[in-house]
Design a protein that fits this description.
This protein has a single domain, classed as Ribonuclease Inhibitor (Leucine-rich repeat, LRR (right-handed beta-alpha superhelix)), CATH 3.80.10.10. 28% of the residues lie in helices and 11% in strands. It has 9 helices and 9 strands. It has a 9-stranded parallel β-sheet with strand order 1-2-3-4-5-6-7-8-9, with no helix packed on it. β2, α2 and β3 form a beta-alpha-beta unit.
Amino acid sequence: MLSTARHLTRLELLDLRDNDIGPDGIEALLAEEWLSRLEHLILDDNPLGDSAAEALAGATHMTRLKHLRLTHSGLGPAGARALASAPHLAGLRQLFLHRNRLEAEGVAALVSGPWTRLRTLVLANTRVGDEGARALAGAPLLAGLAGLDVSDNQIGDDGLRALAGAPLNALTELWFGNNPIGAAGVASLAAAPLRRLARLHLHGRHLNAEVLRPLVQARWLTTLHWFDTNSWGDTRWFAPIDDELRAAAPDLLL
């Protein structure tokens, strides 16, 4: 068993995704002191529940962790609160929590944590909603993020407006696909001070040229390298706006 493998004391990366690990297994594993050098931990697609986050919160020997993945692991608001309560996880650079039912409550708890070094936060398909987006927008950690993924979260114009008004000066890549936004929300994004944004993912079946047109006036458009507007393969609705975007930013990849 890994929980007794003390010869692995120099291990820096541990990938246990999709291994049917449950609460008992993860609690036993994370209690092991030989994990103290671990920097990358991947636990995606295991039926862990909030126990994984609670075990991590109690694993005070894991102070070197920089990259944590708990995708599709059954995490809820209680798990988010547990992660946020762990000061020894303050060194995290990347946190992947997509496909968990965090809800707005969990997002609000999560972003209150000690994430001063966090650079990538992935919250796709976690039921953020407008309320969770507002909580995220008010969090200090947002100012340091280079990558943010809030795709598939039922965030509307109000939520996007809140995020666009937040300090996003360090952001280089934003995933906002498959959220029910309209031209008003897109206009608020166009007005945001996204001076470093290089890659934008803003696709969905509800989007069309009219909804996206405010982006043509975005001051940061000329610094954008890649714009993903359509993941569905049907470009008919985007041809008009593609021409306008290329005219405004000739080097932009669409």
